[in-house]
Specification:
The protein has 160 residues and is mainly α. It is built from 6 helices and no strands. Helices cover 82% and strands 0% of the residues. It is elongated.
Length: 160
């Protein structure tokens, strides 16, 4: 019974981890890593210490990078903190009101609006919006790659 609960909990965390790659309030890769740990503590799988160490490091690094890459993208394209906040708010509102295209339209529109509110001209706001969007998409891609890799190993251990 304990193994089934550990495995079911791990599977649920894998799913939430992948969803968390798109929602900024849910830490996707760390949850996916905890899902791997739950499977490890069941009798269905046994990961090596080195493997778990690498996966844990990847989860931490990708989560940190998710905060750095959007800042880099916004700054690289001439944006400000207002553009970054606008992009983050736009991502959440886009996901709520316009799924699935909201994940693309929301951050871009939010960054442009955020920059415009601070008094930037349309061309500068648009450019900063592109930078924020690019940074957010790279961050999502990194998180998604990490969570999908962990999910792959989770499933592989159950099937083999």
């Amino acid at each position: 019974m304990g193994d089934i609960l550990l495995t079911a909990g791990g599977a649920a965390l894998m799913i939430v981890g992948i969803i968390g790659c798109f929602l900024p309030v849910i830490p996707g890769p760390p949850l996916s890593f905890v899902g791997l740990l739950l499977l490890h503590f069941s009798s269905y799988a046994e990961f090596s210490f080195e493997f778990l160490l690498v996966m844990g490091a990847i989860a931490i690094i990708v989560t940190i990078m998710d905060y750095i890459v959007p800042v880099w993208g916004t700054k690289k394209f001439g944006g400000s903190k207002a553009g970054m906040w606008g992009a983050a708010i736009g991502l959440v509102l886009g996901l709520i009101f316009f799924p699935p295209l909201g994940i693309i339209i929301g951050p871009f529109a939010g960054a442009v609006i955020g920059e415009a509110i601070t008094g930037k001209d349309a061309a500068s706001s648009f450019k900063a919006g592109l930078g924020s969007l690019l940074g957010l998409m790279i961050g999502i891609g990194l998180k998604l790659a990490a969570s999908i890799a962990m999910t792959y190993y989770f499933i592989k251990e159950l099937v083999v």
